[in-house]
Design the sequence.
């Protein structure tokens, strides 16, 4: 439905409401207005990687894992499956009169903040450190959620606008200070792209940006979002963020003033309860009827576009049997397979023709379901842990499983008997032909505002890129007894397992939070039933290297675009079991808007694969400060063993322009060089992958 038609219908409905009724609709738990036939509606729902917090649903790999697929089409397909399950759940919740929280169709996803620092606990919810990758994948996710029918299948929401990526401890009071260059070069592009591609919702961040609370920012909401970008959808606060305006940011003295500031500056919906003070603000003339009416009309425009008030509700024919169905489980396995990143392989994997007689699956994440889920998750009807997957795949091997350590806590003389398990892990590893060591974290130690402060985690943010000490102790001890060691790290961010483990391990796999069937994908990768395809969506650093202050939002020295120091594994990197050769890279045409290029790819290995082609730009001899490299195109190319394909693609010049100090995006002086390959064109990537990128200078 065209948004202008929906808005006209919304105006007709809202104009029948009293001022008090309009204000009641600006809270996320909007009450019914029975005299107008309006049912209560709860706006809060989550769907970062599956319908969350509402019972059973397909639990797909977490967002950072989906990002590592470098596959926009796959992201779209996953999001379409999520909204299908969301509609199926909504249909039944309405049928049975359940209108509670997490039952609606307004999903507060995706999180498109830039993962500028790998210590941020919520980075797992994002699509990584690069603005282009984030923008492209987020747009596909949003399209999959919202659908292409007459009505919205569900409503997506780009969050958290803007300049938001920790620290979690300070988020309610923090002022993120960003230069105009960093703002327009790094923090805003994904928001601009998704808004212009039709996202219906935007959520504001908790923090201030350059002094203004993000949920009451005249510049961010009024001048940029609504003004420059022409956003016509709804703006919602993060949960409790409007209370922060007076309580923590202290830019006003009272909650009624904070509510008024947010509403007048464009925040239509309050996740929280501060908008209950709008009645006081209204009576004291801090806001007027136009402020209230405009917000209510915008919200009802969205509800009308979702088909809530149709006699024949759209998508009502989607059956409940679609929830966590066989088809979605198969898609889930495909997504998990494409997300896993092989970081090291000493010609040990795959084990296709050499299955070990005895395998030990050791570590705190060997049998963990939580590590499959990540955060902002639903609950699957079936889970396949790494231990489960190994049992399914290595049917001729003897399998022994041992925990070896807890995720974090180690304690001697513990009366519960499960705080010191090192000897168990070493016993299993010492007798095995292959040890699969399953390390990592879970949402209790890496995530959103956990409240924990210890030597590893600060309210969910990490203090180190190493694993917790008890896991490092286990890993290093296993190195002393294991004949053959494959390390699997499952967490939401960059991790350094340490020099001893890196050197001893025959292979290292980064598994992220891989979804409900992630353990099967990991086992099949080790066995060699497919070639690994994942690429890193963020840079991995040496844990003992120096990093910029976590509270500093200046991009200098951060991400692959602005530093090549202290890199352990580069952005865009990932090994495979096959070899794809690139040749004949050439420009077909170029104008002021786009560049059309062509490259020929040949799979010279023994495995079919989905090759993750990456094109980067670099400016030579420019007087304008530009990134070291800038990703400007990705293509996921299915290519069979011994097959040759010629790929033609276009590069949007927007992504290869430079951003000046005043934030203006321009074509700088100097020559543009384009690079193509299955990785970044830096020397470390080329050394690790074993081949250079092709290049063209325009």
Sequence:
């Amino acid at each position: 439905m065209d948004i202008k038609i929906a808005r006209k219908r919304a105006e007709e409905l809202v104009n029948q409401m009293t001022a008090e009724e309009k204000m009641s609709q600006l809270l996320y738990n909007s009450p019914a207005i029975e005299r107008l036939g309006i049912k209560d509606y709860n706006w809060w729902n989550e769907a970062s990687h599956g319908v969350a917090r509402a019972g059973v649903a397909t639990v797909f790999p977490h967002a950072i894992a989906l990002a590592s697929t470098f596959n926009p089409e796959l992201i779209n397909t996953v999001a379409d499956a999520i909204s299908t399950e969301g509609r199926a759940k909504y249909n039944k919740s309405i049928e049975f009169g359940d209108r509670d929280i997490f039952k609606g169709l307004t999903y507060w996803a995706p999180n498109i903040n830039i993962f500028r620092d790998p210590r941020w606990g919520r980075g797992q919810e994002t699509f990584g450190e690069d603005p282009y990758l984030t923008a492209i994948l987020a747009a596909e996710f949003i399209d999959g959620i919202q659908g292409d029918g007459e009505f919205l299948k569900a409503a997506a929401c780009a969050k958290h606008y803007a300049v938001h990526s920790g620290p979690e401890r300070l988020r309610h009071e923090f002022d993120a200070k960003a230069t105009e260059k960093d703002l327009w070069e790094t923090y805003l592009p994904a928001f601009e792209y998704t808004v212009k591609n039709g996202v219906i919702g935007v959520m504001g961040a908790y923090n201030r940006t350059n002094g203004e609370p993000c949920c009451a920012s005249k510049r961010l909401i009024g001048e940029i979002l609504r003004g420059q970008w022409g956003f016509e959808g709804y703006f919602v606060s993060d949960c409790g963020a409007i209370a922060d305006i007076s309580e923590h940011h202290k830019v006003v003295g009272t909650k009624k003033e904070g509510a008024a500031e947010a509403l007048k500056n464009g925040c239509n919906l309050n996740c929280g309860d501060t908008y209950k003070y709008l009645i006081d603000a209204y009576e004291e003339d801090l806001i007027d009827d136009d402020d209230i009416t405009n917000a209510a009309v915008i919200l009802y425009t969205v509800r009308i576009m979702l088909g809530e008030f149709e006699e024949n509700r759209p998508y009502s024919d989607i059956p409940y049997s679609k929830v966590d169905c066989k088809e979605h489980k198969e898609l889930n396995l495909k997504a998990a397979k494409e997300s896993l990143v092989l970081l090291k392989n000493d010609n040990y994997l795959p084990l296709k023709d050499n299955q070990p007689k005895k395998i030990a699956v050791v570590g705190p994440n060997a049998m963990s379901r939580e590590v499959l889920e990540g955060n902002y998750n639903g609950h699957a009807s079936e889970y396949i842990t790494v231990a489960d997957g190994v049992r399914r795949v290595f049917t001729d091997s003897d399998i022994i499983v041992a925990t070896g350590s807890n995720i974090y806590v180690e304690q001697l003389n513990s009366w519960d008997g499960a705080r010191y398990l090192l000897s168990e892990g070493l016993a299993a590893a010492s007798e095995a032909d292959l040890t699969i060591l399953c390390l990592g974290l879970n949402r209790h130690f890496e995530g959103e505002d956990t409240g924990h402060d210890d030597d590893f985690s600060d309210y969910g943010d990490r203090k180190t890129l190493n694993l917790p000490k008890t896991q490092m102790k286990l890993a290093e001890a296993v190195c002393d007894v294991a004949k053959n060691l494959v390390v699997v790290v499952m967490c939401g961010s960059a991790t350094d397992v340490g020099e001893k483990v890196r050197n001893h391990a025959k292979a290292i796999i980064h598994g992220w939070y891989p979804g409900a069937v992630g353990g099967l994908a990991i086992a099949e990768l080790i066995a060699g039933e497919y070639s690994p395809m994942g690429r890193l969506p963020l840079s991995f650093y040496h844990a003992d290297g120096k990093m910029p202050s976590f509270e500093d939002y200046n991009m200098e020295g951060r991400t692959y675009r602005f530093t090549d120091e202290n890199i352990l594994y580069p952005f865009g990197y990932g090994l495979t079991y096959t070899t794809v050769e690139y040749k004949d890279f050439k420009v077909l045409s170029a104008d002021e808007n786009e560049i059309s290029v062509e490259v020929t790819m040949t799979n010279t290995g023994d495995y079919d694969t989905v090759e993750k082609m990456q094109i980067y730009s670099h400016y030579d001899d420019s007087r304008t400060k530009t990134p070291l490299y800038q990703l400007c195109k990705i293509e996921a190319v299915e290519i069979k063993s011994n097959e040759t394909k010629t790929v033609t693609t276009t590069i949007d010049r927007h992504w290869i322009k430079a951003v000046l100090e005043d934030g203006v995006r321009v074509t700088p002086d100097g020559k543009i060089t384009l690079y193509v390959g299955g990785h970044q064109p830096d020397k470390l990537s080329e050394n690790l992958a074993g081949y250079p990128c092709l290049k063209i200078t325009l």
Q: What stands out?
A: The chain has 21 helices and 27 strands. The mean pLDDT is 97.
